[in-house]
Amino acid sequence: MLSANPQQGLEAAAQMPWLIQIDDLEQSDQDRYREVWLHEARVAWLCAGLAREIGCSNAGCLEMFRAGRFHDVGKLEMPHEVLFKPCALTADEKLAIEGHTRRGAEILLRGGDPVPRGIIDAVLHHHERYDGSGYAGLRGEALPFSARMVALADVYDALRTSRSYKRAMAEGDTLSLMTRPERGFGRHIFDPVLLRSFVRMRLRRTRMAIPDTQRAALADFAASDPQQDVPADALVTFHPGYRILWAEVRGKRGPAAAVLSNGDIRDIPGGYGIGAAGAAWALPAAHDRQVRATCTVEPAASAA
Ligand SMILES: [Fe+2]
Ligand SMILES: [Fe+2]
Predict the structure, then answer these.
(1) Quick one: DSSP state of residue 245?
(2) How many Å lie between the centroid of ligand 2 and the Cα of residue 158?
(3) What domains lie within the chain, and their CATH numbers?
(4) Which of 129, 168, 195, 208 could form a disulfide with 133 if both were Cys (CB 3.0 to 4.6 A apart)?
């Protein structure tokens, strides 16, 4: 289970047999790839916090911690001089870097131990964007839930961290940029419900770091209706109170879980459930098929 102490949490995560091999791999390159390792550790804690914010169980939070912890593991097999190149990348180098998602999934799977599907999904798809502007163009609710969570934490941490070519952004500026309504970079690239939960979490945890006017605007955004950010042509609608995640397994479609307006996720009696670990993505237990989760308006009586 998650520990309040980061070091204890990392040690607990490293006790898993399939994680030890990855840690060995990372240990040998820890100095060379220190920036990646530290980024992953910060993203891990952000993911665990976000999972807690939306009501995941302890097991779900721990799974999201691991998803964040290993989301960029594929970068450890990228040439160091390309990964940390201080100037613009060539088209080939860019392509090689983008391959870190697939390489990461391969690294996790080659140990032979079973790795939770939500972690693999997050590693593979954390550069996809809700509006379809990511690496492979997956969009909306077709994106695995765990990948949407890691994407948020990943972008946030990248903005908040200084690099040889850029300075770190302030907390308020970062959240304002991530939630701006303009097309392109802004709120449209993130899951509308998760983004609001993330902002709510950061506002609570960083009481002193954000100027009052910025804080008020962000609080308004966090309390706003996520429906307004869903593209008109997307297969997603939000009920004012909650949305339903639909699952399709072996051709049979049914409700998987309800996401309440405060971000809480609830099982629906008789529904497919929300995954063996109690996490938030709509993968029914005991089925290996990727579920297409869409959201539709449902009568209130359907939600538990
Ligand atoms: Fe990445
Ligand atoms: Fe990353």
Answers:
(1) E
(2) 7
(3) 1-231 (1.10.3210.10), 242-302 (no CATH)
(4) 129
